[in-house]
Each structure stands twice: as structure tokens, then as C-alpha cells.
Amino acid sequence: xxxxxxxxxxxxxxxxxxxxxxxxxxxxxxxxxxxxxxxxxxxxxxxxxxxxxxxxxxxxxxxxxxxxxxxxxxxxxxxxxxxxxxxxxxxxxxxxxxxxxxxxxxxxxxxxxxxxxxxxxxxxxxxxxxxxxxxxxxxxxxxxxxxxxxxxxxxxxxxxxxxxxxxxxxxxxxxxxxx
Length: 179
Known about the structure:
Blueprint: H1 2-32, E1 40-42, E2 48-50, H2 51-57, E3 59-64, H3 71-82, H4 84-88, E4 92-98, H5 102-112, E5 118-120, H6 125-129, E6 133-134, E7 138-139, E8 142-146, E9 152-157, H7 165-173
Parallel strand pairs: 3-4, 4-5
Antiparallel strand pairs: 1-2, 3-8, 6-7, 8-9
């Protein structure tokens, strides 16, 4: 009986500590990072991306893709790639956030020949911050302008009839009329 009581106390203590170690940091993270891109991430080539550094000289645009096999997302990346010269007038750089395995993301990069970093969104953690996660394996396609602190300055989700997110980005930035 005495050993059983000690065992119960130990289990309660252990479970309480486990709860504190696992759940409290996630709750705090969820409260502080909503609608915010991580300060540091690594692309699929293991290059570190520091948003505050990247945004010092550039407008940072995050492109999310539904999945690595999404034909409309592939087309959009190709359209943006083909408008790279127009977008360069706005001093913009892109990051592509994709769900799935690294091999699939690499294949997407090769298919589109998109010359900007691709980031694997493990467990849709980043997509969840922007309410773009569609568990278990997809996210809502979006175009997001990210500020230096990681917050979203502008978000365009999805597509509407013949008005795609890349057109909305062009309209928002108006790069063609930049000097």
C-alpha cells in the first residue's frame, strides 16, 4: 500500500513535469507566433534564412503551395519565374513554402526551375501560423508579404476565377510603375 502511494505520487509528479515540458512551450509559441514567420528557417539545401537580414534589402514574399503535385501551383511558380524581371523592379525576393517530403519539393523546384529557396513545412507548422494548414498533408495556396519581424504585411489566399495570386501580387506591388 505504501509503495502504491509512492508510485501514484511519482506518476503525478512525472506527468505534471511532462505536461509542463511539452505543452506549455507549444501554448506559448502558439500565442506569440500567430501570423508570424519564424525568425530563422532552413531551406531544402540546408541554407539558413534569417528573415530580418533578408528583409533589410528586399521585400520578402512567401509563396505557399497546396502540395508538390498541385498543377495550378506549378503554373503559378512558372508565371512568377517568367515575370522575375518585372518583380526585380520592386526589389523582391521569394521563398516557397511546401508540404511533403524533401524529394517531392526538390522535384517541384526542378519542374518549375524556380530560382528561389524552397522550405519544407514540417507538420504544417508554419502554415498553421497563418491559418493555411489543411491537415494532414496540404496547405492553402497563398502569397504573403513578410515584414522584417516575420509578421504578415499582406496576404492573398487562393485564387478567384481568372484572378490568380501572382496577378494580385503584381497589382499590390505595382512593380511595372516603379522607377
